[in-house]
Amino acid sequence: SEVGEQTAHGLSKIRAFFQSGITTVFDKAGNGIALKKLQETAEEKTEPLSKVYFASLVAGSDFYGDDNRVKPTAGDSEPGKVAWMTVLEDDTDVVKLVKEAKDFGSSALKLYMDITPENAKRVIKAAQNQNLPVWSHGTLFSAGPWDLEGIKSYAHADFLRDVVLENIPNAQEAFTEEGYDAIPYDLSTID
To answer: Which of 12, 60, 95, 125 has the highest count of CB atoms within 10 angstroms of its CB?
Structure first.
């Protein structure tokens, strides 16, 4: 199975990592079933392996429909409907979302994209109340960095360049056919 292959590959990696002096690894958006198996195997301490931590990916529904990486990451499950890969929308029970991620064994939430400011704030507060760290992209299209108070870490700090834009684009606008590079790095071009 795909999960079995990912677990076997992951096991060889954490074995090699440990032998190279890397004692801890943190995966931010992988297949939760494979990662949980690796985490449990490392915790058994039957051989020297890097300790495994992983985050549950949280994104808006458009991400799950448009991104070709979600199906392999979800394994045999439906993308966006599993504890390690969850849809966040206006009607999402964020307390339940966080609890399910924790119960599954996730070490943190990773806020990815297509998340509104209101939903970002709701899930961050719910995670804080349950003592689960939150990591995030610098911009979530449409939530901006100013909407992410309480997160523990930014990924892709280059997304912070969007704070100079008058309006942060939503996911569909930001990742058009022209790609994200259509948003200028040269800030002098912005009026």
So the answer is: 60
Residue with structure tokens 């834009």? 165
Q: Compute the distance between CA of residue 109 and CA of residue 122 in angstroms, rounded to an integer.
A: 13
By the 8 A CB rule, do 52 and 14 touch?
A: yes
**pLDDT tens digit sequence for 109-136:** 999 999 999 999 999 999 999 999 999 9
Report the predicted TM-score, pTM, of the whole model to 2 decimal places: 0.83
Q: Residue 152's closest CA among 131, 166, 134, 175?
A: 134
Which residue bears the tokens 């849809």? 87
- How far is the C-alpha of 30 from the C-alpha of 145, rounded, in Å? 24
Residue 77, classed as helix, strand or coil, is coil
- Nearest Cα to Cα of residue 85 among 154, 155, 27, 30: 30
* Sequence-ordered list of residues with C-beta below 8 angstroms from that of 122, at least 6 positions apart, any chain: 94
